[in-house]
Amino acid sequence: MDKEIQKGKEHPLSILANQAFEVFSNLGFEIAAGPELESEWYNFDVLNVAKDHPARDMQDTFFIKAPGEIFVLRTHTTNVTARAIEKAGKEGRLPSAFISIGKVFRNEATDATHEMQFFQIDGTVVGENISIADLKGVLSDFYKKILGKNAEIEFRPSFFPFTEPSIEVWAKLGGKWLEMMGAGMLHPNVLRNCGLNPEKVQGFAFGGGLDRIAMIKWGIPDVRLFYQGDLRLNQF
Amino acid sequence: MKISYNWLKWYIPNAPEPEKLRDIFTYHLCEVEFLQKLGTGENTDWTFDLNILPNRAHDLLSHQGIARELASLLDIKFIDPTLKYKIPDSKPTNLRIEIKSDKCRRYLGRIVKNVKIGPPPDWVKAHLESIGQRSINNIVDAANIAMYDCGQPIHCFDLDKVSGNIIIRDAEDGEQITTLDNKQVKLTPQNLVIADGKNVLAIAGVKGGKIAEVDENTKNIIIEIANFDPTSIRKTAQAVNITTDAKKRFENDLSPELCDFAMKEISGLMLEYGFTDFQEVVDVYPAKQIERKISFSAEKISKILGMAVSVKEIENILERYNFQYKESSGKFEITVPMMRLDLTVQEDIAEEIGRVIGYDKIKPKIPKIDFRPRVDKTFSKIIWARNKLLQSGYSEVMTYTFRDNGEVEVLASASDKKFLRTNLADGLRESLKLNQINAPLLLNINKIKIFEIGTVFLKDREEIHVAYNEKEKIVEISLDKFVSEKLSPEEYGYFSAEKFLVLAPSRSQGSSKETFHSQIFKPWSVFPFIARDIAVWVPEDVLSQEVQKIIKDNVGELIVKGPELFDKFKKDGKISYAFNLVFQSYERTLTDTEINKIMTKITNKIKKKNGWQVR
User: Fold this and answer.
1) Residue B525 buriedness (CB in 10 A; 0-12 / 13-18 / 19+)
2) CATH class given for the domain over B530-614
């Protein structure tokens, strides 16, 4: 039988990542990438997560067995955000906006909603007059484009060491409210650690699981299905 | 933290109904894990499980803290409990307290003599039960009630089991303690302890010891109310692997100023129990908490929130929260209440104002970002490589970063796979095997062609690799090499920003925009499948679709894939069509017998047609 080469099927997380990149690119965000094995500095300290502070318990961390400087498997892609705004500041390219999507790791027992590895989407906008109003505008736009026009989005108070004020983003789907993302205005300590002057610039940042969005969007019941290498997952 | 609604109402009798309160928590303070109704009739109570985050743990892991917060937030009456507790007449004391470590910031001790151990009053029991705690005895319960009420951990020692002064010091290397729950713990000088002249009585802020335990025969007690360095408590608790409610509060930092109220409260409770023999409080307070001031302007708050907040609105909130402040032409200087350790910079005030007003009041807008196209090299290479492989018929998989061997090891993993992968090939090989077994099930895939793009970890660096199969062989090369080898001359310049933005498909190859919002995942069966083929001779003018239809009409509901034409050829004026069929159930393992039955049924239908014959 004669057959043309049939295109392969893409992994659902790549489909979603590309869609997310498109939404943010259209708003003027630059795409950034960074290492998966990260120094403790960029994963925690630069983000105002002090050593020996209970806030470190908010993320179960994989530490790397090695002599010398302490390395971790990044627990979020906020490390990429930090590196990107540091570089943009040095190059005098503010205001700037960055988006990154990458694999992150958490040291916890796995089940249908927890996995040791998953993907996170992380972004930031830094400039002179960037506010929570902008944060709300950008993230509402993103979730409506990803989850559909009818998705309801809410912003609730929260706490993260790297943001002040801190906010959680919730979405209502199928009659149920679900936590989608952590966000907030970059803490002045973070801006300072990245070489920026918090008196002159401010910005917002956000981060959340891509796997979670995919599960909610397509009704995928178990996060572990993403990493089995099973082509039956590639349905879209 | 579990919070009892009735308990809150002691302080805020005008509190809104529980359901309403849940929304208030959610939109102005913190997440509510659940709200549960307890009991019936007059004994009805509700328990809120609040997810108090680390920045407010120092004041909100307590009923009073929550009540104060709500009173300010909602501008409702707060009944100050201080007046409720009568101050007992006190006798002079011989209690001596020595602080020998700067990790102890304050220590209050009080001896109470002639106590009687027994069950607590009913209300104490009910309060503890409403937040999921068990009553132990009246003394321990009093300490717990005070902690869940005001947030200050309290410990009681049996006075008669203590010899000499109370000493707060670093442990000696190798010193031991048996904890209240009979755990043997070996200590180091990094651990702060409460000791007497002879023994270690408690691991400070973490857990009490057996030696001076209050038991049913206890007659005289020492009440301990102290404040410790949070980092020290956290490190010690981690080192000895003990977590307690006290530790949780201390590691989040508490105001040493809280000690006074806690002493008043527990003394008052004991007075209510009928104990009268109180001695004076001994208060050693070497590290007095310093008052903090924060300056900010209404303009900056408005700039952070992205919403104009007036001086008047700010003043109104500051007054409700009992902040002392000075204001002149929009510039504020406030004195932070001692209990609010979380407030240090103007951004903290922006959060206070923002959450009190409600983030829903801020109008969303889209920032105008001056778009200067720049492309991340790594990202564009990944996109290019992925599209290249997809177009060549390869499907994408993702496998685990964790393996049971490698060059980089993680510490204390929750899994048995402690190493990071050094290659993609091992994972891809497993994926290939799995998919080859499932090949008959895979729609539109005849030969298994898969790839993964991902990071591998070598001793001194991480690298992004591309791996794919050529039949049974796995090919793996670095992303850089893959791109430089496969890039055609027309695609040069792809990785410059301008070209990339034009050439790179912004959407995936796989699915179209139209279906992006309508697709739903179809779960697959975990039971084995059975694959069958059927080939049929028919007259030359019969189309394959006709044969396919007959099969389809008779195949039943267990078919998950097919009938799919996979072969045809002509001979002697006849044509042969061959089809695949795959059967699988979502509920059970199928048997050959039942599939044979289905096949026989199809065969019989075909035979009835003139000139048709199953091969």
Assistant:
1) middle
2) alpha beta
Task: Give the mutation candidate from A11, A142, A215 for the B interface (greatest B CB count, under 10 A).
Answer: A11
pTM: 0.89
Burial of A13: CB neighbours in 10 Å, binned 0-12, 13-18, 19+? buried
Nearest to A229 among B372, B390, B397 (CB): B397
- Mean pLDDT throughout B334-342? 95
**What class does CATH assign to B93-284?**
alpha beta
Chain B partners of A236 at a C-beta cutoff of 8 Å? 510-511, 515, 519
For B509, which of A7, A30, A132 is closest by C-beta distance? A7
Please judge whether A133 and B523 are an interchain contact, meaning their C-beta atoms are less than 8 angstroms apart: no
Backbone phi and psi for residue A45, each to the nearest 5 degrees, phi listed first: -60, -45
Decide if pLDDT at A198 tops 50.
Answer: yes
What are the tokens at A104?
Answer: 């992150």
**B131 in Cβ contact with B4 (< 8 Å):** yes
CA distance B376 to B387: 17
Q: Per CATH, the architecture of B292-361 is what?
A: 2-Layer Sandwich (3.30)
State the pLDDT at residue B503: 58
User: For the structural domain made of B2-79, what CATH number should be given?
Assistant: 3.30.56.10
- Terminal C-alpha separation, chain A: 26
| Inter-chain CB proximity A7 and B566 less than 8 Å | no
Q: Are B407 and B457 in contact (CB under 8 A)?
A: yes
Query: In the prediction, which pLDDT does A65 show?
Result: 83
Measured in angstroms, the CA of A96 and the nearest CA of chain B are apart by 7
Q: Do B397 and A58 lie within an 8 Å CB cutoff? A: no
Statement: residue B226 has pLDDT above 80: yes
**Residue B505 pLDDT > 70:** no
Task: Calculate how close chain A gets to B578, using CA atoms only, in Å.
Answer: 12
Judge whether B2-79 and B292-361 match in fold: yes
Q: How confident is the model at residue A1 (pLDDT cuts 50, 70, 90)?
A: very low
The token pair at A140 is 């509402």
pLDDT over threshold 90, residue A26: no
CA A191 to chain centre: 18
Residue B371 has pLDDT above 80, yes or no: no
Which of B247, B301, B411, B442 should be substituted to probe chain A, the one whose Cβ sees the most A Cβ atoms within 10 Å? B411
Quote the CA–CA distance of B585 and B607 in Å, as a whole number: 28
Domain ranges of chain B: 2-79, 93-284, 292-361, 377-515, 530-614
Give the CATH class of A12-229: alpha beta
How many Å lie between the alpha carbon of A38 and the closest alpha carbon of chain B?
10
